[in-house]
Amino acid sequence: MKLINKKNKNYTQVFHIFTEEDWAKTSKNFNKNISTFFTGKKHEIFVNAHEEGITYFIGLGKSTLQNFEIQQVAIKFSQTQKGKLQAAPTLVLADFMTEKQFEEFTKGLLIGTYNYPFEKNHAFWSTKFELHFENLSQKKLDNINQKAEALSNGQIACQEWLNKPANLKKPDTLSLHLKNLAKKYDLKYTSFNRKKCEELGLGAYLSVNQGSAYDAAFTILEYKTTVKNAKTFGLVGKCVLFDTGGISLKNPDNMHYMKSDMGGATAVLGTLIYAAEMQLPVNIVAILPITDNAISENAFLPSDVITAYNGKTIEVLNTDAEGRMILADGLSYMAKNFKTDFLIDLATLTGSSVRMFGDTCGAMFSNNEELKNLLIKTGDKTNQRLWNLPLWDVWKDDIQSDVADLKNISMKPIGDCIVAAKFLEEFIENHPKWAHLDIAGVAFGNVGYAKEKAATGFGVQLLADLIENYH
Ligand code: BES
Ligand code: MG
Ligand code: ZN
Description:
2 domains; Leucine Aminopeptidase, subunit E, domain 1; 471 residues; Leucine_aapep/pepB; 20% strand
C-alpha cells in the first residue's frame, strides 16, 4: 500500500466515505438512486459501478463516532469486499476526516485483509494499491502508512499464531520462528532448555513442562532503543501451546479451543513487532515461558509440592491451573534479572474471568494507580477494554497451604480470577508497577473473518498504544 497526497482526474476505484450527517448534507449532489439505497449508517456499503470505474460509498454512522469505530468499519469493508477490490490508484473522498480518523481507516483496511492461513496476496498489500488523499500532507501520510503497516504486521502475526492448530505449533516450530524474528528485527533472543531451567531453578515452569514430550523453551526477547533514559517495559505472556488440563483433565467438549492458551504470548509478540518496526524509543523485555500442558507418565500430579524460582513452595492441587505456575516463574525471573519500569503480564488464565465478563473486556489487576488508569484509558481508546478487579488481601487466605507456602487453587467455587491474581502477586518481588491482564474471554472469539471462534488480536493495539504514547 502507498498513501499519496494528490488527486488526479480519473480513477477506476473511489472510496467515498460519509457519516450520516455528512451524507444528509451532500446526498442531493448525487444520483437519486444512490440516496434511496445509501444512508451513511455504520458499516453500510453501496457499490456504484459506472462507466469510468467503481465507487464504494462507505457509511461510518453518527459523526460522534469514536476513532476505533472507523477502524471497525474499514476492517469489515476490507473483509467483505475482498474479492472485488483492485490493486490500483484509489481516490479517497472524505473532507471531514481528521488525521487520526484517516489513520484508523488505513489500519482497518490492512487488518481486514487477515484470514487463516494468512497470505499477503490481498490487493491492499500490493505497492500498486495507492490511496490518494489530498487532505493530509505527504509527510503525515508517510507516517500513517508506516504505523498502519507496523500495526497490521504485529496484529496479523498475533492472530496467525493463535489460530494455528496444535500440531502446527509445537515448541520447536515456535522457537525457530522467534529466533528468525529476533534476527530480522535485531532483538536479543535467549531460550533456556530443560537442563538450563533445572540449573536456574525454574521449578514452577518445569512442573508444567515435565509432562511434555518436548523440551522446555523458557524464552526471552529483548528490544532495545538507542535513545537514552528510555523507559523499560517488562512483558510476560502465558504461552501454553495446548492446555489439556494435564492429569486434572479438561472436559473434551471445548478442549479444541485450548490451542488459544498462548493468547498472552501472541499479544506480546505482536507488540514487539510493532515496537521494532516503529523503532519506538523504549526498551522491551518479553518473557514467554513456552510449553504445552500434557498428560503423560511424567506429568505433574495433584498433591505435588514444587519450589518456584523465587524459592516459594507451591502445592499443586489442580494441574489445570498451569498458567499461574509458568507465569509465577516468568514474573519472578523478570523481576530478579531485569530492571523494568512497568511489569505487565497477559494470560488466558481463568474460566472465571470468562464467566464474569464474556468477550466484553479483560480482567485487570494492578498494584499501581497510574498504570491502572493508563491501561483503562488505552483500553477504552482502542476498544480492547479492561475492567479493574480487587487485589484485597482477604483473597490470600484461600491459597494458604498446610504443606507449602501456597496452593495453586483455592478449592472454593468463587472468584478464581482474583485468586489467580493474588497467587501471581506472590511472584512479582514487590515490583511497584505491575498489572496482570486476564484475557481468557477476549483473546479468542467471534470474528469477522472466520465461521468459528478465532483469534481477535486482543492486546496488540492496547499495548502498542500504551507503549507508544507513554511519556
Ligand atoms: N487456559 C485455562 C483458562 C481458560 C479458560 C482460557 C477458558 C480460555 C478459555 C486455564 O489454564 C485453566 O484451565 N483454568 C482453570 C483453573 C481452575 C482449574 C482453577 C479454569 O479456569 O477452569
Ligand atoms: Mg489449564
Ligand atoms: Zn491454561
